[in-house]
Amino acid sequence: xxxxxxxxxxxxxxxxxxxxxxxxxVLRSGMVVQGPEVAAFEQEFSPVAGDxxxxxxxxxxxxxxxxxxxxxxxxxxxxxVPSFSFAATANAVRLVGAEPIFVDIEPGSFNVDPDxxxxxxxxxxxxxxxxxxxxxxxxxxxxxxxxxQHGLAIVEDAAQAHAAELNGRKVGSFGAAGxxxxxxxxxxxxxxxxxxxxxxxxxxxxLRLLRNQGMEARYQNEVVGTNTRLTDVAAAIxxxxxxxxxxxxxxxxxxxxxxxxxxxxxxxxxxxxGAKHVYHQYTIRVQGDRDAFQAGLKDLGIxxxxxxxxxxxxxxxxxxxxxxxxxxxxxETEKAAAEVVSLPIHPSLTQEQLDRIVEGxxxxxxxx
Length: 368
Hints:
Elements: H1 17-29, H2 36-45, E1 53-57, H3 60-70, E2 78-82, H4 88-95, E3 99-103, H5 114-120, E4 125-128, H6 140-150, E5 153-157, E6 165-166, E7 169-170, E8 177-181, E9 194-198, H7 201-211, H8 232-262, E10 275-276, E11 282-285, H9 290-299, H10 331-339, E12 340-343, H11 351-367
Parallel strand pairs: 2-3, 2-4, 4-5, 5-8
Antiparallel strand pairs: 1-9, 6-7, 6-10, 8-9, 11-12
Helix pairs in contact: 1-8, 2-8, 3-4, 3-7
């Protein structure tokens, strides 16, 4: 049995000498907030999302929040979101005073079902917020025409999907805004941070006002804004990470291909036709006792995690006034929440570790 000293972690933030040196260089420069490193990071990130305008902020959640603010959404508005996601997706909607309308995911997939979205549209609907969950692009080829038909905005939650594509088009370039996260366990990080992408130059300017107390020139406030700026230290780290993203992405995809080909007794992650999955998470479905499955892997030194065991619509802030779940009927969401387990997929995995993951999963799955 593998001991804890050689346990394989489910995720591993990459922080090397280059990141440390970049941070120290900026600290010594004295220009540490909203300076040249942030501007360079925005410019360099643009190709990742299809050569659009980029606005750096202090987190992925801030990216979502400011995007909704910039679009003018608020009380009385409805934004359609999947419930199978991290709470930040719906939190951002509530933070502007709008109401999240939860819809189901596609059978067998982990992303929002366009048919469920279509059925949820009402006269109060102003936007659709698809999540490119686990690094797999949502069905934008169906969601974009649907939004255009009904005059709705699309805000892409691309927090987990740096460099993902659908039919050759980068995520973050489909909607009115795309929102990326640079949290430490993401495919690239800046310790903490986020990026908003948009093809609209005027919207980009509005976003820059909103992140900086509503002002472009000092003390000349134009709108009510926030303080959600990214530090130059974070941006410098992000720039180093960005230079490694392409190689890391291919390593994640190669790791996933190896697991796809060798795992038995579990359902490996689906990949839609035309989709480039970047595998922020490698998420399988297991039958039977998931707790026992996870414990079995842990005993073998194989880290694993569940994203997300409680759908958003079941979380306390989103219950009705009586503390009840309400009338949401999301069977595929409930099924996924009960079956998913994410395995290590990070680019630092060795072949020996991949073999241990395969052997461990196949052994534990065979007991079920």
